[in-house]
Design a protein that fits this description.
Layout (H helix, E strand, L loop, with lengths): L4 H10 L1 H20 L5 E12 L3 H9 L1 H8 L2 H10 L7 H7 E6 L4 E8 L2 H25 L5 E8 L12 H26 L6 H8 L13
Antiparallel strand pairs: 1-3, 1-4, 2-3
Length: about 220
Amino acid sequence: MQLDLRQIWNGLRKRWWLALIVMLAAGGAAYLQQDMQPDVYQAQTTLVAKPVPPDNGLIEAIKKTMSTYAQELGNRRMWQEVVDNNLMRTVDVSALHGQIKIQARPDENALVMTVDNTDATQAARVAEAIADEFVARQDAENQALPGGNRVVWVVAQPAEVPSRPYQPRPLLYGGAGALFGLILGLLLAVVLELLDTSLKTPDDVQQYTRLNTLGIIPRSTK
């Protein structure tokens, strides 16, 4: 089927209200859905590995083993011990897997850990406790090693109590929903126009029959 730009334009002009309704409905639904979600706060801490004494070869070795360090930081048994030792009775350890994210940055010899929680203070407390426990374990391993170069971990960016939630974002999702609804509404208006094969104007008669119009019968106003 060959698309007629004039027909598409007519469809958009006649059914603009349909696109508007779909846009408002989609945007409003997305906004309300997000607005009903509980506030989620995110605390972030950064840990950096430093070779002692400074050694270029050891720095390269750290970069290659950064994923291993990330796995150690994400050890659930360690999380359980941290929660138990710090008497965090309101923390559900089984839910931490979905709340904690760890990103390895080999170029910076760093690990970035974020903790999500509906309680801002709790998020920062969990992030700080896990980071401190990880550093303590690395120090203990260093002490058990004979003399020589060592990898020392430090908390370069301590976790701070977030002042505002980062989720939900009703305005962002509402705007995205409205944009999607607008596109969907415009497509729907075009499709309805293309499916409408009725003849409404002399131009339609000429377009579909390829014949000139000799006359028309006006609509009765009585």
